[in-house]
Amino acid sequence: MKMIILAAGKGTRLAPLTDSKPKCMVEYNSKPIIDRIMKTAFSCNIDNIAIVNGYKRSVLEEHLKGTSVNFFTNERFDKSNMVSTLFCAKDFMDDDLIISYSDIVYRKEILDLLKNNNDDFCVVIDRQWKKLWLQRTDDPLSDVETLRVRGGNIIEIGKKTDSYDDIEGQYIGLLKISKKAIKEVVDFYESLDENEVYDGTDYKNMYMTSFIQKIIDNVMDVKPLYIDGGWVEIDSISDLNSIMVTV
Questions:
Q1: What is the CATH number of domain 2-242?
Q2: Confidence at residue 246, expressed as pLDDT on a 0 to 100 scale
Q3: Half-sphere exposure of 82 (CA within 13 A, CB side)
Q4: How far apart are CA 51 and CA 57, in angstroms?
Q5: 3-state DSSP assignment of residue 114
Q6: Which of 69, 76, 126, 134 is spaced 20 to 30 Å from 88 by Cα?
Q7: Which tens digits make up the pLDDT trace of 107-121?
Q8: DSSP character for 166?
Q9: 230 φ, ψ to 5°?
Q10: Shortest CA distance to 3 belongs to which of 60, 41, 56, 55?
């Protein structure tokens, strides 16, 4: 079992806290987010971990000096997005693989569920997402995206909507790909047209949800792993000031 943590971004909405350090080092409840993620991983006996860094990478590497973390770097972190960041660690992707954003904090039980899941491609989905979003905004629909499931498979993810009927949960930024499926996923990514537009963005700036939708449409079934809360996303100063969930 391996884990990749995507930590290349600057986190402009967390400025000035990110002026001198990467987004993943912002403190949540008095402890850096990255430390919380790694502590949770270690508690689940996941210790083969890679971090893809970018912005202020030397600060992060110094912070984690003495750990066994493998570092990869997205040199174009300021001109690309999550999917490009993920595949900077392509050489690390040869086993059952958990992929985590680095601006989320989640309970051990969630990571344990994901670790023990046997689906080839599985995405963690929060059914109680609205409780969290109502702490962040008066208009959740302005910030959330579609999630529709049929026959136990996700059929749509990551589209804008003006109806709660299109939202059966929210993707939290945590997923797993089996060892059996990983090569097919990598090969598919490398086959994509770099000149195509993906949900309004170019290839380098493709959203993770856009890539997952491509997997759904062209490669394999993607399964939801449902949770009911137990996590937070720290994307802005207002999140730090308003979210009252203890994780």
A1: 3.90.550.10
A2: 63
A3: 17
A4: 10
A5: helix
A6: 126
A7: 999 999 999 999 999
A8: G
A9: 90, 20
A10: 41
Q: For strands 31-32 and 27-28, give the pairing.
A: antiparallel
Q: What residue ranges of the chain have pLDDT lower than 50?
A: none
pLDDT in tens, 40-57: 999 999 999 999 999 999
Residue owning tokens 């508690």: 43
Bridge partners of 224, per DSSP, are: 123
Cα–Cα dist 178/180, whole Å: 5
Alpha carbon 76 to its chain's center: 18
Tokens of 38: 């790694």
CA distance 247 to 234: 12
Token pair, residue 231, equals 């996590």
Task: Write out the two tokens for 241.
Answer: 């000031």
In this structure, is the dihedral angle defined by the CA atoms of residues 64, 66, 72 and 75, taken in order, positive or negative? Answer: positive
Tell me, letter by letter, the H, E, C secondary structure of 7-59: ECCCCHHHCCCCCCCCHHHCEECCEEHHHHHHHHHHHCCCCCEEEEEECEHHH
Rounded to whole angstroms, the Cα distance separating 232 from 229 reads: 8
Strand 97-101 with 2-7, pairing: parallel
The SS3 call for residue 101 is: strand
Sign of CA dihedral 232, 75, 81, 149: negative
* Domain layout of the chain by residue ranges: 2-242
Radius of gyration, alpha carbons of the chain: 17
Q: Provide the pLDDT for residue 171.
A: 97
